[in-house]
Amino acid sequence: MANHNRMKAFLKVGKSVFFPLDLPQYLSAINRTEASVADAESKLTLPKDQILYAQFWFIKTTPLDEVAFNHLFAGEIDKAEEIWQKRECASSLQNLLVCALMHNDYATAISYAETLYGSAQYATQLISAVVGDSANIDIISLSHDFLDVLIEEVGCPIIIRYLNISEWKSYVSKKAVSPIIKQLEEAVAKAMSTRKNGPIARWNAGNELMATAKQLLLQLRKLLPKSDLQYQVIADKVGIEILQCGIDYFNDSEEFDAADKAMSLQKYAKSIAVGQMAKDRCKENVDILQRIIDNLPPSEVFVEDRAIHEELRKYCLLPDKICHAVTLLNNTKPHIQSIKRKLGVFNSYYLKISTQVVGNALSNIIAEVNEAQSIFSADKDDPNATLAAILGITHVKSVLEEAWKATRIMDGFDMEADYKSGRYSENRSILKGLCEQMGVSTSTYTPSSSSSQPTHRNTSSTARPYSSASNRATVNRQTTSTNCSSSSSNDGPPWGCFIVIAIYIIIFLISICS
Questions:
Q1: Cα 429 off chain centre by
Q2: What is residue 469's predicted lDDT score, i.e. its pLDDT?
Q3: Which residues contact residue 44 at a Cβ distance below 8 angstroms, ignoring those fewer than 6 apart?
């Protein structure tokens, strides 16, 4: 009380006042003002407030404390600590705790605190020394108040590593986990708010969420095991949203490296997922995207590849007619030639895309030739059968002429060796033999609609039955949200062989006329 009155008197006349326990050797200078003193007094009105602030300051209750303080005032803190270490009691533990905090030695400070608050006897002695025996202070609440201040001043990650009391660990963990989970949930909500803002917004949102998650999930892993439900729920929530950012970006982006950029997000999402459902979804989409990346064209022909696939997309929506096959061949040829110039004639991607175009065009040729031959299945007892047969022959010849013209255009396309020597050459030879039997010219003349030159002629005319199935390979942009497959020369329509109809036509006409 004497110090209190002296302090007020000095401050009233504008003079500074100092006390031995200001410890200027160890602590920063204290700037006392009438306002700061009044504020301090208001915070020390209630017993619970008095004990709260006393937890972080010295206390004198024994003769040993008096001796130790003399050394402390003289700047000999080591000697003061030696004296307090000679006898364990509430005041010595409290004073050693404060000295450790002055040294920023949190491990030692927490060790003394656990001894002090872990003993009901010591804790009660501390409470009595500060606020008297009549105060109703709960020891567990008092220890939590001590931890709360340390958490606020030092941080949970530092504090928790030195704790040995399981109840203290649990308390600090909960205090530490809640704000981290809250930050992660807010980050997820922020990313989700960009779902309709376009690919760039989704790409940026995914990267921002990933950067936040890397930092916060690392902190969370120090506090919770992966098996903990709280960790699993928030990790899966973050992972799924990052995955969705990658999916949305890839699906809507026009950038040539969109798949590679999306993969960086999706792989990270897969790495942090914990729950089985989240892990399975991430793995499924990463596998799909990897297949897409494996089949991507070289970056230097990205524009040509996109143009060709757009032509294929439009082509697959049209009827199975030879005229559409010719349009496809003529529209894609400039892009095919551009790829050839950039990558070279032996490049595997060049041969693959060129073969894919040929395979799709050939399916239409097969379909229309088969359709033209259907006239010969007419009932011979039909009174109009003779006229239908005559007209049918004319129509078949017209279709064969167009089919051969389209084939001559395809001859100008390079193809994968197995496909060219196998399916393509086989069907070309059969078509050529059928044209010759029907009197359709198979000269090497190239139609004016295409500037391609014939290559690798195959003059074999072996005739075999020809399948009427002609399912063209669809060409759609793949996304990582569903299972997709890219079309290729080996996944195209099931090729058959042309039906040899010349002999059958003659027999059919004779039977009708007779």
A1: 50
A2: 36
A3: 50, 53
Distance CA(196)–CA(181), nearest Å, equals 25
User: Consecutive 10-residue runs of the chain (514 residues): their mean pLDDT?
Assistant: 66 71 74 75 80 90 92 91 94 95 94 94 91 82 92 87 90 88 96 95 97 95 88 97 97 89 96 96 96 88 92 94 96 96 94 96 91 66 58 82 93 95 92 87 57 34 34 38 37 41 47 48
| Close Cβ partners of 140 (under 8 Å, ≥ 6 residues apart) | 167
Burial of 73 (0-12, 13-18, 19+ CB in 10 A): middle
Both tokens of residue 115?
């001894």
Report residue 98 as tokens: 């404060």
Q: How many CB atoms lie within 10 A of CB 321?
A: 16
Closest CA to 413 of 399, 424, 402: 424
Cβ-proximal residues to 221 (8 Å cutoff; 6+ apart), any chain: 231
Residue 89, token pair as written in the block: 């009691």
For residue 42 the two structure tokens come to: 């208001």
- Would you state the pLDDT for residue 454? 34
pTM of the model: 0.57
Q: In this structure, what token pair is assigned to residue 372?
A: 């033209």
Give the pLDDT confidence score for residue 37 in this predicted structure: 75
User: Encoding tokens for residue 503?
Assistant: 């002999």
Give the C-alpha distances (Å, rounded to integers) separating 387 from 13, 16, 392: 129, 125, 8
SS3 469: coil
Name the CA dihedral angle for 51, 55, 58, 62, rounded to a multiple of 10 degrees.
Answer: 70
Q: What is the pLDDT of residue 30?
A: 75
Instruction: Provide CB contacts within 8 A for 470, sequence distance 6+.
Output: 320, 363, 364, 366, 367, 370, 493
Q: Which residue has the tokens 């041969």?
A: 351
| Residues in CB range of 10: below 8 A, 6 or more apart | 16, 17
Let me know: does 413 contact 456? Beta carbons within 8 Å: no
**Is the separation of the CB atoms in 293 and 260 below 8 Å?**
yes
